[in-house]
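User: Before I run my own analysis I want an independent prediction to cross-check against. Here's the chain; please return only the structure tokens and, at the end, one sentence I can use as a sanity check.
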Amino acid sequence: MRNITLFLMLGSTLFAGGYKIPETSLNSVALSSANVAHAFGADAAYYNPANMAFMRDENIVEADFMYIGLSDVGYKGSYTTAFGTTTGYDIESKKENFFVPSLHYVSQNISGVRFGLSVVSPAGLSKRWDSAPAIYSAEEFTLKTVEVNPSVAFAVGDKAAIAVGLRAIYSEGIVKSTSAIASRDMDGDSIDFGYNLALSCKPTSELDLALTYRSKVDLSLKGDAALSYRDVTNVFGGGASSVYASQSSASVSVPVPALLNIAAAYTFATKTTMEFVYERNYWHSYRELDFNYGSGVNPATNIVFGAPIAKNWKDTNVFRLGITQKLDKLTLMGGLVIDETPAPTSTIGFELPDSDSVSVSFGTRYQINEKINIGLGALYSMRDERAVSNSAINGEFEDSNVLIISSALEYKF
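Assistant: Structure tokens:
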């Protein structure tokens, strides 16, 4: 896979329901991403660019640096191979630690228009195992993304604003799997496009309403694969096995789902703001995981690794609550999110043992002077144990919890 020299080639990781990553700024971490209707910092460029039209006439830029830690996921249960052999296992995945930067910018008013730019990671996963049977399909399963999201906003009267943006997503993927009869080492990358829309309304000075939509983006990764297959037909008859190895072009498509947010925030006289966000993720577009290889691949190898893998994911609901308390130079934040998994039990695999989750968060910002503020926030996601029973897996995944710590520097000029 081609080396990426940009520092924003993020070590993305599995976090939200599915492989979507909603936390890309300090406020989003501290508020559990309940920062849509009342997003008035630099990260409004990403979470609700329509709000840029209501912000003070100044340039704002924010640099964020985030740590993400994944616990090792445990699996206890049995696994049935394609040959019908069933064996019991008690294994754990590797722990994962990542450092993820992001950038947000909102321009000053330029002829009645505000411009925004965000550079973030909207999706990703990384799951690595070093024990059978997980290595048969997910010795390593990694997806990295970087999204460049420019946007433009303008007011419609005194109480409403609209915005439109372009999504340009660069993605890289690695898939490694090893079994007694076959192995695969594949990598690829792509650049794909989508769009986002936002509408904001301020019926009163205390009430903020918002509707945002991010389009689906199909990540159409293309690259190379090293494949091998051991023909064991003769081994059972006392003969020698034959090994077929090949290098091939490879491609696979993975969707970043469309996303709808409906949000409302109210600010009380005590400078306390409460925001509720209903989020709908349109995961139904993820029907299957289909790897395609070029000519020259041994037919048996293609049967092992080329057959489409059913996913049949469902649309999900997410509920987010955020509370912000402004003091003199200090701002306190807290949040709660209830997130559904889109993955049905029938298609759960070792590459993405997802489950429902509840997350809590908190954070603070400190205003150093009129131009600079700094902040720190944390989010802890507690994922449910997941009992799985399908054609291959009959057991339970557990301990897939996540810790996020975010720091930020915001500058106004």
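Sanity check: The radius of gyration is 23 Å.
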